[in-house]
Structures are given as structure tokens and as C-alpha cells.
Amino acid sequence: MNNIIECRSLCFSYIEGDNQTSILSNLMLDVKSGESIAILGPSGCGKSTLLNLIAGLDTPSSGDVLINNSDITKLNEQDRTELRANTFGFVYQFHHLLNDFSSVYNVAMPLLIKGVDKERAIAQSEKLLTKVGLENRLSHKPSELSGGERQRVAIARAMVVEPDCLLADEPTGNLDSKNAKDVLELILELNENDTSSLVIVTHDQDIANKMNRTLTLSNQQLI
Q1: What's the rounded Cα separation, in Å, for the pair 201 and 217?
Q2: Which residues have a Cβ under 8 Å from the Cβ of 215 and sit 6 or more positions away?
Q3: Spatial strand order in the sheet of 19-32
Q4: Which domain holds residue 135?
Q5: How far apart are the C-alpha atoms of 179 and 181, rounded to whole Å?
Q6: Is the pTM of the predicted complex or chain greater than 0.90?
Q7: How many CB atoms lie within 10 A of CB 94?
Q8: pLDDT-derived band of residue 195, with 50, 70 and 90 as boundaries?
Q9: Domain containing 97 — which CATH number?
Q10: Which residues contact 148 (CB under 8 A, 6 or more apart)?
Q11: Between the chain's N and C termini, which has fewer beta carbons within 10 Å?
């Protein structure tokens, strides 16, 4: 099975004033196509930074990040943006939906940005929103949805482009226990059905137990 993500000797640090703070050091990670991985660790240990490095949103201090065998650190901004858009779907703790747009347009937006014609983009969005149980919320704006519903829209938006890998950063951290359980089950169901990889950052051991593999970020490395 091919690796969709490879991190090699990944280091990341930042300078604040006269001080340099190291977040990640010589980190190694392989993610195979179709597998699900949980990354555990306390707040502030660098889990979100790692996701940003994988997606090319941040630049490592040193080391390599290979996405489908392309070193994302060696690409220019345009190629990096294109690779990110064609490879990843993103789900965050906070939904980051566009408040002025309906559910169906929020989900359709990644397709429209990629140049998919409007009719097809809307049809695909409606299909996916129905799949996540929101067929009666297509025209509702985020302010008219519950927290759990907003996160379902965010998941549909992440999956509508049929990504090779879903990157999820504490996707249930802002939900009550019932909605958290429902959202996690939905992510796992969509991930399994679409055979995409899943990398989920969490501090919840119960979530980690549902993944194929669990890694812990400790002392700037994955163990």
C-alpha cells in the first residue's frame, strides 16, 4: 500500500525576540492510503502545527513533507495550493463556514473554486448534505443551524472534493457528547466509504481507539 504522506526528519521552530522555541524535532511519519491515524497529545504540543506542515500551510524549519511522492516544501505557492486543494479535506474544531451563504453553497464552494460548473457543484453538494442527514437544511445559513448541524456541513464541505486524505483538528472538541459521537461516526463512515485516509488530531482516547493506529506527540516527536 502506497504512502500518501511521508514526513522525514521534520523540524519546526519559531523565534520570538531573542528566544528560539522548538516545536517539532526530527519527526517521522508515514500515512498509508486508506488508513486512519489519531495523533494524541496535550494542548500546545504541536499537533495542529504538524497538520499545517503536512498541508503546506506552514513551512518547516528543516526536513521534508512528501504528499503522493511530491515534496510540498519544494513547490511554489501556486503548485502547493493546487496540490493541497486536490489532496486534502479539512475539518476543524470550529466550523469556519461562510455566514452569508446557505449550507448547499458552503459545501459547493470548494468545487466552484476548482471550476466545476454551478449546476453540477450544487447537485453534488445536495447529495452529500442528504448523506449527512441535512436534506431539510439545504437553504439554511450557519446562524440557523445547531452546532452539530454546522459541523456536519463542514464535514460535507471537506468531503465534497473526494480528497485523498481528510485532516481533522479536534473536530468534536466544540460539541456536546451526543453530537460529538454522531460527528465522529459520520467522519468514520464517510472515510470508510470513500477509502480516503484520515489523520485526526485529538486529546480524546475514545476517538483514538476507533482509528487504525494511534500516535502520541511527545518531546517534539511521534511515538
Answers
A1: 10
A2: 29, 37, 38, 39, 40, 222, 223
A3: 19-32, 3-16, 62-67, 70-71
A4: 3-222
A5: 5
A6: no
A7: 14
A8: low
A9: 3.40.50.300
A10: 175, 176, 178, 179, 182, 183
A11: N
**CA separation for the pair 146, 95 (Å, rounded):** 11
Mean pLDDT for 186-205 is: 78
Q: How many degrees, rounded to 5, is the angle at CA 148 between CA 193 and CA 191?
A: 15
DSSP string, the chain: --EEEEEEEEEEEEEETTEEEEEEEEEEEEEETT-EEEEE--TTSSHHHHHHHHTTSS--SEEEEEETTEEGGGS-HHHHHHHHHHHEEEEESS----TTS-HHHHHHHHHHHTT--HHHHHHHHHHHHHHTT-TT-TT--GGGS-HHHHHHHHHHHHHTT--SEEEEESTTTTS-HHHHHHHHHHHHHHHHHHT-EEEEE-S-HHHHTTSSEEEEEETTEE-
In this predicted structure, which of 63-77, 146-160, 190-204 has the lowest mean pLDDT? Answer: 190-204
Asked whether residue 1 carries a pLDDT value surpassing 70, the answer given is no
Q: How far apart are CA 24 and CA 124, in angstroms?
A: 39
Count of domains observed in the chain: 1
For the chain, what is the largest distance between any 2 Cα atoms, rounded to a whole number of angstroms?
Answer: 55
- Please give the Cα distance from 93 to 147 (Å, whole number): 11
